[in-house]
Amino acid sequence: MLRAMSRICVYCGSADGTRPDYRAAAERVGRTLARRGLGLVYGGASVGTMGAMADAALDAGGEVTGIIPRSLVDREVAHPELTELHVVEGMHERKALMTALSDAFLTLPGGHGTLDELFECVTWKQLGLHDGPIGLWNVAGYWDPLLAMLARAGEEGFVRPAHRGLLIAGADLDDLLARLTG
């Protein structure tokens, strides 16, 4: 039985990156989710692409839930205007709550934290700990090297054929969201 899609967790950066495309992509995700009536679950920061995405969703009338560890409240500057903000004790609790509150997952360009969240999400799906679809928006080819590495991991026998489709990658946001929510 399919469940109704209501919230999408988005992993992205606490920095803007070097290309304006990244911030623009985050803003587009925020606006698009709000316009589609999908709640946004994210890391709770007001800075970087995280903050830009949250602001865009809020400006478009969307529901935005942030989850941030207490140790990052000041460093990542917790967003003060969210629909809901959960302050948790650590990163493991953050990722577990983000997963529990979400029906699907989308990853935008980001750094170590974004990669950590993405791979834990994929691993948890592989282990059957959640069943939400996982998307990777390949903005301006950002994820091309990662996608090549994942293909190599499959070719070398480290990712089973049955698990190669756990990550849905695409360069077109509307198509990718259709694949995640359809």
Q: Over the alpha carbons, how many angstroms does the gyration radius reach?
A: 15 Å
Biggest sheet layout:
7 strands, parallel
Head-to-tail CA distance between termini: 14 Å
Q: Count of helical segments?
A: 6
Mean pLDDT: 95
For the secondary structure, the number of strands is 7
How do the strands of the widest beta sheet line up side by side? 4-3-2-1-5-6-7
Q: Which spans of ≥5 residues are poorly predicted at pLDDT below 50?
A: none
From the spread of the alpha carbons, the general shape counts as globular
Q: How do the helices and strands follow one another from N- to C-terminus?
A: EHEHEEHEHEHEH
- The structure class reads alpha/beta
- Percent in strands: 15-25%
Report the helical percentage. Answer: 40-55%
Structure, described:
By secondary structure, this protein is an alpha/beta fold. Helices cover 41% and strands 18% of the residues. It has helices at 20-35, 48-59, 91-100, 112-126, 144-155, 173-181; strands at residues 7-11, 39-42, 64-69, 84-88, 104-107, 134-137, 167-170. Helix 2 links the parallel strand 2 (39-42) and strand 3. Helix 1 (20-35) runs parallel beside helix 2 (48-59). The longest helix is centred in the first third of the chain and has 16 residues, at 20-35. The relative contact order is 0.16.
